[in-house]
Design a protein that fits this description.
- The chain starts with a strand and ends with a strand.
- It has helices at residues 15-24, 79-88, and strands spanning 5-12, 28-33, 38-43, 46-52, 59-63, 105-110, 116-121.
- By secondary structure, the chain is α/β, with parallel strands linked by helices.
- Strand 3 (38-43) and strand 4 form a beta hairpin.
- It has one domain (5-121): 2,3-Dihydroxybiphenyl 1,2-Dioxygenase, domain 1 (Roll).
Length: 123
């Protein structure tokens, strides 16, 4: 099961303070718009998203169809297929992707400890 690029999405209180903190750890801006209260940072292959006012808790994120540089992969498992595979394994889906659609879509599962895992396909 290929899940795509991985990142951690942090729910932050002050995006500017958080950005400065992670820059001091060697992260550099990669994508996003801090004026809209979200920014993506990288340190090597490690991707970290900072989101102010968008999530209640931190989220683990997989992006089917992307590599760690947000470049489209030539072949990948579509998010709707991943959703079907997880359903057959008995994993409850939160905010399901429309399985009759194509292109960008997303769904969420939660692990046994209540951590949200977002599968967010942009292609």
């Amino acid at each position: 099961m290929q899940l795509g690029a991985f990142s951690v999405s942090l729910a932050v209180k002050d995006i500017h303070a958080s950005k400065a903190f992670y820059e001091n750890l060697g992260f550099t801006p990669f994508a996003g718009d801090i004026t809209q209260n979200w920014i993506i940072l990288k340190n090597g292959d490690v991707v970290l998203g900072l989101f102010q006012g968008m999530f209640e808790k931190n989220v683990l994120t997989f992006n089917p169809g992307w590599d760690q540089n947000a470049q489209t992969l030539p072949a990948f498992t579509d998010v709707r297929e991943l959703q079907k595979q997880l359903k057959t394994k008995g994993i409850a889906i939160v905010n399901e992707a429309d399985e009759s659609s194509t292109g960008p879509a997303s769904f969420v599962v939660t692990d046994p400890d209540g951590n949200a895992i977002l599968f967010d396909q942009h292609v």
